[in-house]
Amino acid sequence: MKNIVMLLFVILGMTTSTAQIKKASLSPRVMIKQQVGLANISLNYGQPNAKGRPVFGKLIPFGKLWRTGANSATKITFDQEVLIDKQLIPAGTYALYTIPQKKEWTIIIHKNSKLWGTAGYNKTNDLLRFKVPAMPLKEYSETLSINFENFHANGGDLVIKWEKTQVRIPVFVDSDALVFKQIEEKLMQNAKIANAQTYFDAAMFYYEKNKDLPKALSWFDKAIELRPQAFWYRYYRAELAFVLGNFTAAKQDAELSLKAAKANTASDYGYIAKCNLLLAKIADKL
């Protein structure tokens, strides 16, 4: 008898599945992955259209919790910790809720990312709440859009646009701290297995950040020792030597880099030009 009942359930399930009609969603799911600083961030949201309807204040009431999309709650995933509104957000997946108002929105990072819309929402599971100004859009946006803009080394803006309104949420990633950590792990603790590119990348980072320039110079030395044919290594060592006031060494490296760049089959005019400009600056100092 038990087997017969189980068989009936299986048949019923197959019948139900077969009877379903597949059709295109009017609010299709959007799934994007974006590198922001050194963090990888994923977004998953339902994308509705206005279809001639007034949206904020009407279709989406002011002062009410919104799933920030359609159907299941909008999800945002960080592969490492980030800062939003100066608050630390640990790596993980969260729901993105909002409360739109005419002049400002409340942004909510919610710990329960498995809800259908706002059903079952509990404020006690909010990780973070903060407010951002609501700004007018120059061009009408028929379709809800959530993406990233205004990238920089340490982050970018999460931007929500729909109808005539946009809000911007700055996301900060402490990329410098992550790079310093990589240098510590890959170079200082494992110097015996580090390759030329690792030394060069570390040297360039210290040089660009104006941190311990003699150490950066020693890493340029090691990179060139391991890969002497890389004329661009020599160019940047020449730049750093110039900054440190060692104009003779700077001239020698710039001339060697220029010669190698001219001989390169790829005809690297960029480095040829940079070497010539650097040599002109060096000439003024000698």
Amount of helix: 25-40%
Structural class: alpha+beta
Number of domains: 2
Shape: elongated
Question: Gyration radius, to the nearest Å?
Answer: 28 Å
Unreliable stretches: none
Work out the strand percent. Answer: 25-35%
| Number of E strands | 10
Distance between the termini: 100 Å
SS field, number of helical segments? 7
Query: What is the typical, i.e. mean, pLDDT?
Result: 90
What is the H/E string?
HEEEEEEEEEEHHHHHH
Summarize the biggest pleated sheet.
6 strands, antiparallel
Largest sheet, spatial ordering of strands:
1-2-3-6-7-8
Tags for this model:
single chain, Serine Threonine Protein Phosphatase 5, Tetratricopeptide repeat, elongated, alpha+beta, four-stranded antiparallel beta sheet, 2 domains, six-stranded antiparallel beta sheet, 286 residues
Descriptive overview:
This protein has helices at residues 2-19, 175-188, 196-208, 213-226, 231-243, 247-263, 269-285, and strands spanning 29-36, 39-46, 70-78, 82-84, 87-89, 92-100, 104-110, 126-133, 135-152, 155-172. α3 packs antiparallel against α4 (213-226) and α5 runs antiparallel to α6. It is an alpha+beta fold. It is built from seven helices and ten strands. The strands form two sheets. It has a six-stranded antiparallel sheet with strand order 1-2-3-6-7-8, with no helix packed on it. A four-stranded antiparallel sheet has the order 5-4-10-9, with no helix packed on it. Helix content is 37%, strand content 32%. The model has no long low-confidence stretch (mean pLDDT 90). It folds into two domains: 25-172, no CATH class; 175-285, Serine Threonine Protein Phosphatase 5, Tetratricopeptide repeat.
